[in-house]
Amino acid sequence: MALISRPPEPPKKEQLRIRMTKKILEEVDAYCKWQGLDRDYFIEKAVEKIFEKDREWIEEKGKVG
Question: What is the pTM of this model?
Fold first, then answer.
């Protein structure tokens, strides 16, 4: 068995086109520049945080699944 194996295949990504206010977009871009992130990664992580923290959504999701 190899000591270091190949990394797993990255998940398939879907393309999304969104609109947001200029003020918010400028802040997103400033944050991404500050942290060295790209917008896609920032938005995906922000959405994950919302899904982790929103208790009402967690309860609703529990009803469905």
Answer: 0.77
